[in-house]
Amino acid sequence: MRKLKKYIHKMATLAILTSSLTFTPSINELPIIVSVAHAEIKTYIGTDTAMFDFGEDDENIVNTVKLCARTRAEQAAREKAGLYIKSDSRLVNSVLTKDEISTITNNILEVVKVEYKKLPYKAYDIQDKSLGKIGLMYEATVTVKIDTSSIEKYLNCDEKERSRLITLNKGINNIINDNNKRFEELNKRSESASSKQERNAIKADLAKIDRDALYVQKLREAENAKSNADRRRLYSEAISINPNRAEAYVARGYSNNGESALNDFKKAVSVDPNYAPAYFWLGSHYSFDKNYDTSIKYFQKAIELDPDYSEAYFQLAIVYRDIKNFQAAITNFSKVIELKSSSHGSLAYAIMGDIYGDNLKEYNKAIEAHTKGIQFAIKYPSNAPEVRLIKPIAWNYSSLGRCYFELKDYKQAIANFNKSIEYGGVKGYCYNKIGDCYKAMGNKTKAEEYYVKAKSVK
Fold it and tell me: In this structure, is residue 412 part of a structural domain?
């Protein structure tokens, strides 16, 4: 059985291993760029209300009003926790977007206490006094906690996992926002609902809000599950609650392999043809199968639906590089750089520079790309595993060395190979290339010295 998930996590690494540069540093040498010191438990409290114009004696409506109050209060607590994460000075060298802060908050936050208080509320008085009952209002107070040590778990995710978590978090937030809007719309409708038929229609719509709230709950439970089997089970429960939403299908497909994953991604497209992540994962699946034409189609569709989908541009660029459509690859890598993805940007410069140098023999453009790649990696540091493994700064310096070697600027080449070693580059490879430089300069003694050093490196 194909291990799609394993492939997905390692795709950036595979892209490098298939490039002209042999670059395989030891995992034991991986530096931690982002760290969280003095981890602690932080507690936040959020309070908010929800009201409805009828239903005091209807348990289902009462529960829906409570649910909306709780959702709003929980969101208020999440926003407070997000402000802490954003401002915490203990986050070293991190570059977090608004979506990342929201995602971290939602994934490490735990609700520890919920309290409800019924408040007096006089509903709009309609003409029919038999239907003009006192309205409902509940106040919810939610206490949440975050374990700040869990922040690092997110920061150490690879870029594909981060992208998946951010996308899922956006989907959850959209559902919550839609539920709030629908609740307010139903409340307005309830003001003039004078017949039993109208009220029953409102009740049916309130039940849909309850259903979507339970769906969100299952998605969040799945993300915190201890095992992949539990995660798939909870995603399946979410699907059974609402089979007409795409998020759970994509999430379950990501945790599946082979045909099971493919079927989930296809189902996601069928229930929501405008859900960009479903097309992205289909593109990833077909790229893994080397069905490049189909993967290109799906990556392009994902980008059409979400023009800021950095991961889709990156993987599309990799496919174009693999089929030797170098100009298309450069175009898509350039878009990744434009979007300032903290890990993809530095990798994009490195791979694009190698395309210019190794494939197109345009060494000056290659030098420009690799130089900017180094600057980008310093300005937008990332702790993603593929970045720690690949070490794009070292990669860019090594590639610069190769470019200067081709241009017969051997002193610059040596300087850049040494810089690559300084930033964790493969010593044996760099020593060999320095030896080649001295050999080309006619210094056989120095060349032999570095060839020996290369052989001595394990």
Answer: yes
